[in-house]
Amino acid sequence: MTRPESADTPTDAPGPTMEGRSVFPPRAIPVDLRTDVAHTARMYDYFLGGKTNYPADREAAEEILTIYPNAPATSRANRAFMTRAARHLAADRGVRQFLDIGTGIPTPPNLHEVVQAVTPESRVVYVDNDPIVLAHARALLTSAPTGRTAYIDADLHDPTTILSADVLQATLSLTKPVALSLIAVLHFVPDDVEAAEIVRSLMEPLPAGSYLTITHIAHDLDPTLDAVAAAYRQHGIPMVARDHHQMTALFTGYDLLEPGIVALDRWQPDAPSPSDVVIGGYGGVARKP
């Protein structure tokens, strides 16, 4: 993974473009990546051991590590949860369509790589409104020949725009089950009512048999995460840690898969015994009846 050569994205393409079987709509105007300001996606990349980060990001991330040394372990557990959940939905639940909102900087294995390894014809739509993510998505999110990946430049807070996007309509069929992934993104929506409304608005148009996957930092797993959220807010990034009850409320109306809402490393773990490290986040997957 390399850093972008320029802070500007292409402006001359007339509309959505095809790169193999991947679709990426261009931005209309140049964007400033603001590498002098700490950014949550690049901080997460740093916690994962990536290289798509800058001094401001590393400085802020090191500050978080003084509060919460388990940040890298929790970040890795979050990524591993995504892999297991996506693989389970593709291999064991027959899902062939995936909508991932709040994609973040591409980090192998990406969701489409996981599900297309199981079923190459799977279709995946990624959504983010971050120019940093867009700059890397063009190079890294490439589909298997028989499947399709697409990228939508849109905001989590605007479900209508996401679901009505031409790119989404051309890639997914909303008459067939879709797996919606909200991985480590709803803790950037501090208001409980707004977070629940975002979930409802995104899931309501999806047919029965669709799935909802959520991960979220949790202060009842580790109280230190309240201080972590406060530190993010001091850097201008809205964030809140929630508890098991609040996480459960986000799944209201859906049927949770076993083992329910549990710490990230406890959800259908690959290893016989999860790590002894306290992982500060919950994960859950549910089916729309």
List descriptors.
single chain; about 290 residues; alpha/beta; Rossmann fold; ten-stranded mixed β-sheet; 10 helices; about 35% helix
Architecture per CATH nomenclature, i.e. the level-2 architecture:
3-Layer(aba) Sandwich
> How many domains make up the 3D coordinates?
1
The sequence of SSEs as H and E is EEHHHEHEHEHHEHEHHEEE
* Low-pLDDT segments, ≥5 res: 1-20
CATH topology: Rossmann fold
Which range does the strand content fall in?
15-25%
Q: How many strand elements? A: 10
Task: Find the structural class using helix and strand composition.
Answer: alpha/beta
Q: How is the biggest beta sheet arranged? A: 10 strands, mixed
What's the shape?
Answer: globular
CATH superfamily: Vaccinia Virus protein VP39
Radius of gyration: 18 Å
The average pLDDT value, as a whole number, equals: 89
CATH class: Alpha Beta
The span between the termini is: 40 Å
What is the helix content? Answer: 25-40%
Per DSSP, the total helix count is 10
